[in-house]
Write a structure and sequence with these properties.
The chain is 62% helix and 3% strand. The N and C termini lie close together (10 Å). Helix 1 packs parallel to helix 6 and helix 6 runs antiparallel to helix 7. It has 231 residues and is mostly helical. The chain has one domain. A two-stranded antiparallel ribbon has the order 1-2. A hairpin with a 2-residue loop joins strand 1 and strand 2.
């Protein structure tokens, strides 16, 4: 397969306005967590519902990108990403437990658990199979080559990915999993955790859109070899 080329995402030294807005949104999570209703941070609350919607949108857009870019090699990347979004959405839904009656009602909202689900023993094998198939597909389509080409073209959205990682760290900190604190009372810390997690998913969604959008303009698409020809 001859080396494929991808257009650069933005001119050198220029940061996309969308990424700047993301950075400002991350900073705004803290003050917003102190004014939003505490019920928004509850399990299966407003913020968790928004998280699931973002994750499902990520899966839908990945599948759309796969259909739009076929049979180009980068289409395989979109197809492999879709199951990851789906697994994350299922995890936020406690693998379906949120559709059942809560196990308990506390001052911090309802408590849902997947331990009582009759199909709980099947969750791990199904998730493993789904991600395993995606990994095998990635290896067969040699997505390492595609990733290297995207890296050389400067199309990897490092700032967005960095913001997502930073947001996940902040969410863990607000939840008390790391040795740090935001000096917030429990209800506000719970809202902050869910708000930052929502931001992290939004950042990944923006990163995916940035990666796939404009990756295959007509001149480049004509030069790329179909994915089916890859070993």
């Amino acid at each position: 397969m001859p080396p494929a080329t991808f257009p650069t995402a933005v001119p050198a030294g220029r940061v996309p306005s969308g990424q700047v807005l993301l950075a400002l949104a991350l900073l705004a999570c803290y003050p917003f967590s102190m004014v939003l209703p505490r019920t928004w941070g509850w399990e299966n609350g407003v913020l968790e519902v928004l998280q699931v919607l973002v994750l499902l949108a990520g899966a839908a857009l990945a599948l759309r990108a796969w259909g739009r870019m076929r049979p180009l090699p980068i289409a395989a990347l979109a197809l492999c990403v879709a199951p990851v979004w789906i697994v994350l959405a299922a995890r936020e839904l406690s693998w379906g437990a949120v559709f059942m009656a809560p196990q308990a009602l506390t001052d911090h909202g309802p408590v849902f658990t997947s331990r009582t689900l009759w199909y709980k023993p099947l969750v791990a094998p199904v998730v493993g199979l789904l991600l395993g198939v995606a990994l095998v597909h990635a290896c067969r389509r040699r997505l390492d080559r595609v990733a290297l080409q995207l890296l050389r073209a400067g199309r990897i959205p490092w700032l967005v990915l960095g913001l997502a990682v930073l947001a996940e760290a902040g969410s863990s900190c607000a939840e008390g999993h790391l040795s740090c604190t935001f000096a917030l009372r429990a209800p506000h810390a719970q809202v902050l955790e869910e708000l930052i997690e929502l931001f992290a998913y939004l950042a990944l969604l923006v990163g995916q859109a940035s990666l796939f959008r404009g990756s295959v303009p007509p001149p480049v698409a004509a030069a790329l070899e179909p994915a089916e020809s890859l070993p």
